[in-house]
Design brief:
By secondary structure, this protein is α+β, with helices and mostly antiparallel strands. The protein folds into four domains: 101-216 and 230-249, Methylamine Dehydrogenase, Chain H (7 Propeller); 262-347, no CATH class; 348-435; 438-682, Alpha/Beta hydrolase fold, catalytic domain (Rossmann fold, 3-Layer(aba) Sandwich), CATH 3.40.50. Helix content is 20%, strand content 33%. The strands form nine sheets. The chain has an eight-stranded mixed β-sheet, with helices on both faces. Strands 3, 4, 5, 6 and 7 form a five-stranded antiparallel β-sheet that branches. Strands 8-9-10-11 form a four-stranded antiparallel β-sheet, with no helix packed on it. The longest helix has 25 residues, at 2-26. The radius of gyration is 26 Å and the shape is globular.
């Protein structure tokens, strides 16, 4: 026993020695690439603001390209030194390799669904004549590129199920191309449409409506602003040059338009937007092509979504005079008469309404968890749809003659299960259950409510292995978003399961700025209230530390896009809060975001530094780029972005990391990982997702002094 104890002690000491050496290597001071500065001063209402990295905004510059290469060289050389980086990737490839399905949807007499065999870069679209029939591949986007960087972005099936129209995005860009396929023969027709962006495909008769911009100047496709969104109708078999202009707004160059055709093809609905909240509504009765568009809503004060129609009546989900939303009925001949079908619930937010089998399904959010109630078209409540547990459901969309529908259910510990729902009896049966190779019973998910700085109670989901010792040593990944009325709901992700199986803690709070508690919750975290979002996030970190889930030295904070802003603001306001910061594709220059691509649409959420002194001062106070302080020890940071991100252009990340590298005190590395042939995130190939997550996890653990468990 003594010898055994001695051997065990020696092994423990050896492991500790290896860990110490690893930590020492990863904490050696780095020599960052030289980033030049320029003399650039802007005057905002009498306040002079320096912008020494303005030159990094030029995405076409050879000098910027050379800078990107030097930064990536440093980052990947650093990541290569992490001893367990390759083993992390191998483990991720192993656990990622399981079949994943979407719920089937029906058009005409055919069923359609997506499937990924496991490690396919893009999911494949299948078709079957009956649910019991052998599925056939209809469209495999993996054949469209050698590296998986061409993705399906939108598909739409004609009302009779005869044709498939679909859009593809290349390298993650928001620009799309549209094509048409004859489903029975799988023949690709000659139709090709270009320069679609923020568009759907809405079938009507022998063609479809879509939205597009004019072709941008060569070289400016990924950075220039786009104006004058127009709606066209494309008839199958004709060139795009023959497409009919259906609607344009010459008075509002920044306004964009989404289209919808009701199932009976009676109405064309146009939803007009300029920002990320609030939209106009116009409707046209298509029974006579000379009918004019009728304005149902002519301002951008509220959100409105047409769900269906009953004859001349349109069913509209709205938050007008109802912060938690209500379903209303509006007659096109009386556009000012809005009658409640499903009144607002003052205590619970109505997230969405779907329809199938002449029934309406209201999806409510109860503390960021789904509750579904079935109604008839008169608004009579019929039953609750019984869900298996605490989590997130989606689906129940179909035709009025359908007798059944499908929905999915998931949570942070439950892979997606697809249920078949009998509309008449209200019975749910499992249609397909994902086998992800994990046992959900090994993990626990709880929801806590913690006080923010101003006393507001904020919900947070915490997930970890059952029986995990809360001693303050657990690696913890704190992720949030907090903006744009976006709901962050419990959803399964295999990448998180890898974190959890290594005794990690996953914490996801529902910050103000989201829509989990309706529009009031959203407004509590936007414009002049944006600081509430950062305070909510900081309070979440403090809760985790105070309750011994983790410690400062084992805590990583993360978020993407608006969540990247969240991380950037948090780490500049509280550099002492955590060990690792991971701002991904973030909005980090709050004074100039509106000058690039679709950034102007975020003014409704953030405000604009050019508009007023009050808005400038509010933005300047928290803008991550402008709040990096000299000689300050910031957390170990890995900024992630991508060269084809034309949503949040990478210049945000470029300028922010330059400021960090110039001012970082101590040995915590501040690096940037710039993905190539990728965009804001949508359509990213599985291989790139795995590689990036492996690098992010390796970076976190190397900074925390944590070694992964062997599998």
């Amino acid at each position: 026993m003594k010898n055994l104890y001695t051997i065990s002690l020696c092994a423990t000491m050896a492991l500790a020695s290896c860990q110490s050496k690893q930590i020492a290597i990863m904490q050696q001071p780095l020599t960052y690439p030289t980033t030049k500065t320029v003399t650039q001063e802007d005057d905002y209402f009498g306040t002079k603001v320096q912008d020494p990295y303005r030159w990094l905004e030029d995405g076409k510059s050879d000098e910027v390209a050379a800078w990107v290469t030097s930064q990536n060289t440093l980052t990947f050389d650093y990541l290569k030194k992490i001893p367990f980086r390759d083993s992390i990737k191998s483990r991720l490839e192993k656990i990622w390799n399981y079949e994943r399905y979407s719920a089937p949807f029906k058009m005409g007499n055919r069923y359609f669904f997506y499937k990924n065999n496991g490690l396919q870069n893009q999911s494949v679209l299948y078709v079957q004549d009956k649910l019991e029939a052998e599925p056939q591949v209809l469209l495999d986007p993996n054949t469209l590129s050698s590296d998986g960087t061409v993705a399906l972005s939108t598909v739409a099936v004609s009302k009779d199920g005869k044709y498939l129209s679909y859009m593809i995005a290349r390298a993650g860009s928001d620009w799309n191309e549209a094509y048409v396929m004859e489903i029975a023969t799988k023949k690709l027709l000659e139709d090709k449409l270009e320069w679609l962006k923020y568009s759907g495909l809405s079938w009507y008769k022998n063609g479809f409506f879509y939205s597009r911009y004019e072709k941008p100047e060569q070289g400016a496709e990924l950075q220039a602003m786009n104006f004058y969104h127009k709606v066209y109708y494309h008839q199958i078999g004709t060139p795009q040059s023959d497409d009919k202009l259906v609607y344009e707004d010459k008075e509002h160059k920044e306004r964009g338009f989404g289209t919808m055709v009701t199932d009976d093809e009676r109405f064309l609905i146009l939803s007009g937007w300029e920002g990320t909240s609030g939209n106009t509504l116009l409707a046209k009765d298509l029974t006579n092509e000379n009918n004019p568009f009728v304005k149902l809503v002519d301002d951008l004060k509220n959100d409105h979504d047409v769900i269906d129609n009953e004859g001349e009546d349109l069913l509209i989900l709205t938050n007008r005079n109802a912060p938690n939303k209500r379903l209303t009925k509006v007659k096109l001949s009386k556009p000012d008469s809005w009658l409640d079908v499903i009144p607002e619930n003052p205590k619970t937010a109505l997230e969405k309404v779907s329809k199938t089998g002449s029934k309406l399904f209201a999806f409510y959010l109860e503390d960021a968890k789904t509750k579904i109630v079935q109604y008839n078209y008169s608004g009579k409540r019929e039953r609750d749809v019984q869900l298996p547990s605490m989590g997130t459901a989606a689906g129940l969309d179909g035709g009025k003659k359908d007798k059944e529908a499908f929905y999915t259910f998931t949570s942070y510990t439950t892979p997606i299960t697809i249920y078949r729902y009998d509309i008449t009896t209200g019975t749910s049966t499992v249609f397909r259950q994902t086998q992800a190779g994990i046992n959900p019973e090994d993990y626990e998910m709880k929801q806590v409510f913690y006080p923010s700085k101003d006393g507001t109670k904020v919900p947070m989901f915490i997930v970890h292995k059952k029986g995990l010792l809360l001693d303050g040593t657990n690696p913890t990944y704190l992720y949030a978003y907090g903006g744009f009325n976006v709901n962050i709901l419990p959803t399964f992700s295999i990448k998180y399961m890898y974190w959890l199986e290594n005794k990690g803690v996953l914490a996801i709070p529902n910050l103000r700025g989201g829509g989990e508690y309706g529009e009031a919750w959203h407004k509590g975290g936007m414009l002049e209230n944006k600081q509430n979002v950062f305070d909510d996030f900081i309070a979440a970190a403090e809760y985790l530390i105070d309750n011994k889930y983790t410690s400062k030295d084992r805590l990583a904070v993360a978020g993407g896009s608006n969540g990247g802003l969240l991380v950037g603001a948090t780490m500049t306001q509280r550099p002492d809060l955590c060990k690792v910061a991971l701002p991904a594709v973030g909005v980090l220059d709050m004074l100039r975001f509106h000058r690039f691509t679709i950034g102007r649409a975020w003014i409704t959420e953030y405000g604009c530094a050019d508009s007023s002194k009050v808005q400038f001062e509010n933005l300047y106070k928290y803008s991550p780029l402008h709040n990096v302080k000299a000689n300050t020890e910031y957390p170990a940071t890995m900024v992630t972005t991508a060269d084809h991100d034309d949503r949040v252009v990478p210049l945000h990340s470029f300028k922010f990391i330059s400021a960090l590298q110039a001012n970082q005190k101590g040995t915590n590395p501040v690096l940037i990982r710039i993905e190539t042939q990728a965009g804001h995130g949508a359509g990213k190939p599985t291989s790139k997702i795995i590689e990036e997550w492996a690098d992010v996890v390796a970076f976190m653990w190397s900074q925390m002094g944590y070694n992964p468990l062997e599998k």
